[in-house]
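lol ok so funny story. i was supposed to be doing the assay writeup but got distracted and ended up predicting the structure for this chain instead. priorities right. anyway since i did it might as well share w the group, maybe its usefull for someone
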Amino acid sequence: MVDPAPARAGSLSGTASIRERMALPPDAVFEAVLIDAAIADAPARELGRARLQPAGQPPFRFSIPYRDSDVTPRGRYTVRATVRQGDRLLFTTDTFTPVLTGGPSQPLNLVLVAVDGARRPARPSALGRLPASWRGDLPGAGGTTRWQVDLAASGSFQLRQTFLNRPAPNQFDDIGRWRLEPGTDRLVLQGGREAPVLFQPVAGGEQLRKLDLQGKPIQSRHNDLLQRLAAPEPIEPRLHLLGMFSYLADAARIRLCATGASLPVAMEGDYRRLERAYLQALPAGTAGRPLLVNLEGLIAARPSAEPGRAPERSLVVERFVGVHPGKRCPQAPGAPTARAPLAKPELRGTLWRLQALQDGSGPKLSEPPGRPAELLLATDSERVSGSGGCNRLIGGFQLNGEQLRFSPLASTQMACAPSAMAFERRYGEALQRVRRWNIDKRNLLLQDAQGRTLLIFTATPQNP
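and the output, tada:
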């Protein structure tokens, strides 16, 4: 009997580093896995694994053993690396790095990116232990608003405003980055709004005092405090998002532009449209490259793709909007999110920017003071959102053919220049008088019951 030839073994060596300058916890674990991602819709096949427990500090040096017989010309091989602390994912690779391509073997140099919750907090002392949630009901001219702020040690935040005396839709969600101002310890939340939201931590972070737009205490006898909750109760924000999306075999991830967080993408909702558009937009030979995408989504807990892991916060794609090859996230924090290019404008689903207000209650305004005033009518619900040039707006609408009517709109309660506030009042009153609509080329005309044009909008170019 002839003995079978022994299986020949190979190894793949390299180093992995992380971008952030921070010390890892002593119980962190590093893993590097060699996978075959040749079949796009099938689970990736694992060929070998290296594990460092404890991980120590980066850079991590690893060597992954594998069997030569497992490597075929049809394969598409890459290395996926992670750093975990228990069930919590701290760092991960988010790009496709081809290996075992048949050329000369070179040591790998991987770069891992931080997942939300992995970064060191900027100034934890004034806020107390993080993560944490604060909640409070703050009275205002338009009624009582329930505020909730969630802060992560990574420097990211979630914010929800709920207008308690308004019918649904009556919530504004926002995400972004937070910081504490040196010297004052004022908490600055910079997200997708026109202006940052400011709070003053009180009693070591047990309370957050709401400040005005200039960072001053609000002069009022009413409550201006949010109370720290006994345990974090993070919201599940639903909002418009930009992010760098990538797909490697059975794993889809997105790095959110607003926070820098890297999240898995759940394969539900409108995910398949996103995946198809992403694969079609990829240049040849660039499998796994991140591309900028634009969508409406929900950030919520979903089961982990890896057996035995706890559920993790993931992105659920509720409506895919567009993919933008060659584009990157906006550089400035809180930069306005971009939407997909439009072939021709439709009333619903188009971001309309105000060009003229001619309601008869004052001079015609072709250039509104403050920031641009915008309007967006949802495609899947009778929900309208936008901006009045100072505050964000949200409400409902009724559409019947050429007839259009807006419900009373709720707004955030920011203080801006008097001219901008005066314009915003006129703008809101004009929207309440709208009864008809018409699109002329790329312009939207909103008219009253007598057919007089009150507001003129134009479709935005919407290029990232």
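Helices lie at 271-281, 418-432. Residues 418-432 form the longest helix (15 residues).
back to the writeup now i swear
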